[in-house]
Structure formats: structure tokens, C-alpha cells
Task: structure prediction
Amino acid sequence: MKWVLIFLLMAPTAQAASLGKVFKPFAKLSTLTVLSAEFDGATTYEAVRSGRGYEANLMMRPFSRNVSIFPVLGASAIGVNYLALRLQRQEHKKIGKALQILWIGSHVAAGVWNLRAGNAYQR
Result:
């Protein structure tokens, strides 16, 4: 049941990520930005709920025990995409791409850390 709820909360965020097709140069990075944030959110949520992990980020700690972590991380990823788009329009393309790549890398690393350290999916 909880996986259905998690999917239903992630689906609108993934649909919002597909709007990146409007911005051709950033379409793939924008989608990966949102999906990596949701991956981190899903693994954090599961690790915290199972009692095998904890949220180290003080700003995200209030959201980590309930499903509100998904829209919060989705909104922050969309904000990073917006900032990257603004940088692209101001002719700072490399900085915009670097920002998105750092965002993706940090969230994938955090998600993998949650999977390995918390053993969230091994019961």
C-alpha cells in the first residue's frame, strides 16, 4: 500500500519534469535533476521510517518522516532547474549545467548512501 502512495506522489513530479522538453538543451538534465531528488527522497523516507537511518540535513528533517518529503524535494529540484535556465539565458551555460550536474550527483550519492548504510530495502 505504501508503494502505491509513494508512486502517486512521485507521478506528478515526474510529469512536471517532462515539461523540460520545452527547453531542449536542458531537457535531459532537468528530468534527471527531478528524478535524482525523488530517488533521494524515496530512500530517505524508507530508511527513516524503517528506523535504520536518519536525516542529517536539519532543513529536511521535519519532512523526512512523512510523505511531504516528495513535493518538497520536487519543488527544490524545479527551483534548481529554473536557476539553471536563468543562467543559460544570461550566457552562463557551463555554470548552469554544472549546477544541475552537482545537484544530480549529490542526490544520487545520498540515495545510494541511504540504500547501503540504512539497508532500507533488506528486511
Summary: Helices lie at 2-17, 27-50, 69-89, 93-118.
